[in-house]
Amino acid sequence: MRRNIFLFFFFLTGLLCLSGQAIQAKEQTMKDGLYAKLITSKGDILLKLYYDKTPLTVINFVGLAEGTQILGGAAKPTGVHFYDGLTFHRVIKDFMIQGGCPLGTGTGGPDYTFPDEIVPELKFDRPGLLAMANAGPSTNGSQFFITHVPTPHLNGKHTIFGEVVEGQDVVNNIEQGDRIEKVEIIRVGREAEEFQTDHKAFEATLAALKQKEEEARQKEADAVREMIKKKWPEARKTASGLYYVVVKEGEGETPRPGATVKAHYTGRLLANGRKFDSSYDRGEPISFPVGVGRVIRGWDEALSQMKRGEKRILIIPPDLAYGDRGAGGVIPPGAWLVFDVELVDF
User: Locate the PPIase FKBP-type domain: which residues (predicted)?
Assistant: First the structure.
């Protein structure tokens, strides 16, 4: 038995040595770029970081690894190499390994979040991709994952910011609880050497990204306004940004807040006109208390102002609908919605 234990120990030690030797050999021939070497309890993983395509995410990762990022009161203090000593707290066979949680539970982070950097040409089309774990759009922090296999269902949902260049076998052998002993950042070439990754660089890059996002939102809003003006020239706009067209006038009073209303509807995406739901198709109106947050804000606002029997077309902006999260895989993040709505009774 003792002999078998020694044999297993030397076998494991041999594997770790081979992994380390492979990484060292790779380091001698690396092309210019920014790299991260994850020294784990199972061996080394060499990652190339896409600092040219996802600069904010890479700055954050490197800043945490080197202790130059200012934390927001997280479990580890500023100045400490954030990832050293953490574990891979979540491992799913034939899917991915996930690490970067200072609590080891999947609920921790650096106590701040930052936006996604979704690059259309970067897709989950092969093993060994390094990406940010998140709890929804723009909730990135410190947690990351590395894939075992292609995972196309994650496209557009997680920022891909690097890839494995050596050590995919180590990735495949990682088990839940295995440790990240140390993360070393390797800069090869002048461009990588000059790429700033301190907190000042993070703040500047974050501000530039937010400005770019705001400009894109404004451009999209202008295009939507032109579309609405062309398709529904008689549409009225409320102070909240909701557009509506009265198709048929109703009679009597409007419902009071909390009153249970019955409404028929058909919902479509403004972008392509695709129908995603309809009570008419089911032959049964829906019932809900109006004006108390049981439905999307655009609905609450519109139906609170409608009379019995009234029909409207509602053109609802994302912030009055499902926002940046979308809904159920049917409504994309940031989608404008169009509803044909009839207030049947209340």
Answer: 258-346
- Over residues 280-338, the pLDDT tens digits come to 999 999 999 999 999 999 999 999 999 999 999 999 999 999 998 888 779 988 899 99
Residues whose CB falls within 8 Å of the CB of residue 165, separated by 6 or more in sequence, listed in order: 26, 30, 35, 46, 47, 48
Provide the 3-class DSSP secondary structure of residue 346: coil
pTM, two decimal places = 0.74
Q: Is 297 helix (H, G, I), strand (E, B) or coil?
A: helix
Look up 174 and say whether it is catalytic: no
Nearest to 133 by CA among 91, 81, 94: 91
Question: Catalytic residue at 265?
Answer: yes
Q: Each residue of 28-87: pLDDT tens digit?
A: 678 999 999 999 999 999 999 999 999 999 999 999 999 999 887 655 666 789 999 999
Per the annotation, the verdict on 185 as an active-site residue is: no
* Catalytic residue selected from 111, 118, 186, 276: 276
Tell me whether residue 35 is one of the annotated catalytic residues: no
- Torsion-angle region of 329 (φ positive above 0: left; ψ -120 to 50: alpha; else: beta): left
Q: Return the half-sphere exposure (C-beta side, CA atoms, 13 A cut-off) of residue 286.
A: 16
Q: Give the 3-state secondary structure of residue 196.
A: coil
Cα–chain center distance at 9: 41
| 15 SS3 class | helix
DSSP characters over 218-283:
HHHHHHHHHHHHHH-TT-EE-TTS-EEEEEE--BSPPPPTT-EEEEEEEEEETTT--EEEEHHHHT
The distance in angstroms from the start CA to the end CA of the chain is 79
d(CA 267, CA 275): 6
Exposed/middle/buried for 269, CB within 10 Å: 0-12, 13-18, 19+? middle
DSSP codes joined into one string, 64-112: HHHT-SPPSS-SS-TTS-TTTT-B--EEETTTEEEE--TTSSSS--SS-
- Contact between 52 and 79 under an 8 Å Cβ cutoff? The reply is no
